[in-house]
Specification:
Structural class: alpha+beta
Mean pLDDT: 95
Low-confidence stretches: none
Shape: elongated
Strand order of the largest sheet: 1-2-3-4
Order of helices and strands: EEEHHEHEHHEE
Strand content: 15-25%
Length: 158
Amino acid sequence: EGFEIIPLPGHSFDMIGVRTPDDVVFLADAILSKKTWDEYKLPFFYNVNESMNTLKDMQKLKAKLFVPAHNDPLDDIVELAEYNIKGMKHKKELIYSLCEGKSFDEIFSDVIDALELRIMTPKYPMYAVMVRNFLQSLIDDEAIDSVLEDSVLIYHRN
């Protein structure tokens, strides 16, 4: 009794936050620390656009204390949410700039080079999924499109 469930779509399937009766909001992985952004440069978001919308909504939340999973507790979540939104926008702009007549593998390689990621076998699948998720967000925005050419999907800016 007295707990509030807060939908936090985007980072993973059906993620929720919880507001406790004493006005503390637990935000799970819906918002990432600056350290996480700096370390991974391309952290995981299942649905980029939903994550961005969640972060925008999060900026309107009021609470006595916010507790993200990967950050120290905060009195105010606005600055960290804005940092996350800017990071996502930057990655979308980067990937958009690479989408002119290229396959996924070419775009993926260009993203790895542009972000100077040290790619290791265990992180390869996560980074590949993230590039695909950002591509999907750009398709959802109708900013890019894809065409099948000789059994290879080629991305183009609209």
